[in-house]
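ARCHIVE CARD
CATEGORY: sequence design from structure
SOURCE FIELD: tokenized fold
FIELD CONTENT:
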């Protein structure tokens, strides 16, 4: 009797714990594109750390605006206190329980900050890692810039810096999760719908169901 009550209480509490999938990969690997497809099919809320930072940069009166712009232009990583609090607020505001956290955690500071503030409040399901060559990523980002992305970092100079940060700071984070068996590696050099086929396998393997629409 008590056991049953405890079990249903624990399953109730489990359902309340927000579930998170981290989405990582080089700049231009296609994280954003795949996240919109995933959010449509699986009902996850797409939270792009980069988009949240760009929004905060534009917010009138933000004390972080200039610092964020400097980091973005130089391909450096914003201190985790800022990014983590934006992510946390967006999660709370959504009122939802399943999240794609796109472009985070990108370095040791990000990982430590998340572990400190959020790891106990959330359940990390897995890490989607989009693998794509530097040449192809550069071509995509420059194309995106030329097509009018309006991003202050889609130029060759910023891109070189973003890539260095990715190799030096983000790859070790991916390796950290790989050791825990949490990484689902996806070839991101093919067309978006082909990439999505592989993404679906990762979600289905985790027992996540598609929405019925
Ligand atoms: N950024 C950051 N912390 C994050 C995510 C992004 O500081 O957690 C900054 C960083 O300067 C990065 C830029 O925002 O180079 C753009 O990130 P975004 O994820 O939008 O770029 P993408 O990889 O999608 O091209
Ligand atoms: Mg992006």
């Amino acid at each position: 009797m008590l056991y049953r009550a405890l079990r249903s209480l624990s399953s109730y509490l489990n359902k309340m714990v927000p579930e998170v999938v981290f989405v990582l990969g080089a700049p231009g690997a296609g994280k954003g594109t795949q996240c919109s497809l995933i959010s449509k099919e699986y009902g996850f809320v797409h939270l792009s750390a980069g988009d949240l930072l760009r929004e905060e940069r534009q917010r009138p009166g933000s004390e972080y605006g200039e610092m964020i712009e400097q980091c973005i232009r130089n391909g450096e990583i914003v201190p985790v206190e800022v990014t983590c609090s934006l992510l946390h607020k967006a999660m709370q505001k959504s009122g939802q329980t399943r999240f794609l956290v796109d472009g985070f955690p990108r370095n040791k500071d990000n990982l430590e900050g998340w572990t400190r503030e959020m790891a106990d409040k959330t359940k990390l399901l897995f890490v989607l890692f989009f693998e794509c060559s530097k040449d192809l990523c550069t071509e995509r980002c420059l194309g995106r810039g030329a097509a009018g992305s309006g991003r202050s970092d889609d130029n060759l100079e910023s891109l070189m810096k973003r890539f260095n940060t990715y190799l030096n700071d983000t790859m070790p984070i991916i390796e950290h999760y790989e050791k825990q068996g949490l990484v689902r590696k996806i070839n991101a050099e093919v067309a978006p719908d082909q990439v999505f086929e592989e993404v679906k396998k990762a979600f289905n393997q985790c027992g996540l169901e598609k929405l019925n629409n």
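CARD ANNOTATION: Residues 27-28, 31-32, 48-50, 53, 71-72, 75-78, 83, 103-104, 106, 110, 153, 162 surround uridine-5'-diphosphate (ligand 1) (CB under 6 Å). The mean pLDDT is 95.
SHELF: design records, drawer C
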